[in-house]
Design a protein that fits this description.
The protein is α+β, with helices and mostly antiparallel strands and about 425 residues long. The chain is built from 13 helices and 24 strands. A hairpin with a 4-residue loop joins strand 15 and strand 16. Helix 2 packs across helix 9. The structure holds glycyl-adenosine-5'-phosphate (GAP).
Amino acid sequence: MAVAELTMMDKMVSLCKRRGFIFQSSEIYGGLAATWDYGPLGAELKRNLKEAWWRSNVYERDDIEGLDAAIMMRPEVWMASGHVASFEDTLVDCKGCRKRFKAEAVHGKKCPECGSELTEARQFNLMLKTHLGPIEDEGSLTYLRPETAQGIFVNFLNVQTAMRRKIPFGIAQMGKSFRNEVTTKSFTFRSREFEQMEIEFFVKPGADEEWYHKWVEERFNWYVKLGIKKENLRKREHERSELAHYAKACTDIEYQFPFGWSELEGIANRTDFDLRQHARLSGKPIEYFDEEAKDRFIPYVIEPSGGIDRSILAFLFDAYKEEEVKGEKRVSLVLNKSLAPMKVAVLPLLRNRPEIVELAKNITSGLKRHFKAMYDDTASIGRLYRRQDEVGTPYCVTVDVESLSDKKVTVRDRDTMQQERISVSKVEEYLVNKLK
Ligand code: GAP
């Protein structure tokens, strides 16, 4: 990794901690590897990203229903899906320092860290296990889901019949997934607890290839529309040898992170593998009956499966901007307004003038009815602007002495730094329109 790349990653980790986006989990105890806590601004950003995904898929399309299935499922689900048998990494252990490595990442028979001898390679299942109920034995064993997808597959008929859906249609779900990952570098990129946003889109066999290509385009454009620079995104079709056990084809949407091009989302053609497997293991037929064609079949599935944490990381890197303004370094996050965690900050120019403070607080209360807004008087105006720029707040409203006589405030735009005087009576409507 080049020094400049390392620096960018360090800057982002530091900004995320300093400004309340992302903290190491259990930090005061030394941290828990590959698990992360979203702070006040990170939690807002995450909510906004999820809202954008849900809106564009579940609300704006006519052919997708939402779902929120349980994280814990019967172990048979993971036998049917193939995860118990083949959701594995091949690993080697160091006999000296006891570190564990993916076999593919080690060249030769010596530990890359301490030079000691390595064990033979062995298979290691990535699913996290737990026990339900008071007795910890084979019968109480269950798994924390490694993908949200299976909750959708086992509910295919429930959703289809409850909502009287005709194929093609999809089911969308977001939520936590868990994997006992071995390589856990690169900040939140590969976490052990993370969130996915997944769609299983059910189609007639034969229509799968057309839908697969449509979904690759659709998902690529979603990231661009939300602000990721096109030149930092690419599509990469999987080689046959890379395909997951369930997939006939897969295209990754990759982002150019400081540590290299890496997967944000995979769009896979899962064929009828999962529905067929669940029908076989549960003994319950899972079929769709096409009334018009009087045809009964097991649908094929196209799956756009994205990572919420990875997307957040990509949006943060993509938005990060450093420039020189009037001889000073200015850092801003040029986030799409819909994603920005704080929409407006109201700043009084003089915090020791009660009339100014009162007016600023009143404006803040009005704005809070529409979106996340805050009042801040804890520093000089220049410093307050810099703080808001650094977390991507699209607008700052400044209340000054003149505001008391001309009943106007200054609205400053994050990206252009242009300032406009707007009537106090109009400022709420003005900002609501700007942030639509
Ligand atoms: N249902 C298909 C599936 O789970 P995947 O490629 O293993 O496919 C889908 O995961 C997406 O989930 C990835 O593109 C990535 O964005 C996210 N993801 C997977 N493992 C992750 C991890 N350990 N940490 C963060 N995100 C992860």
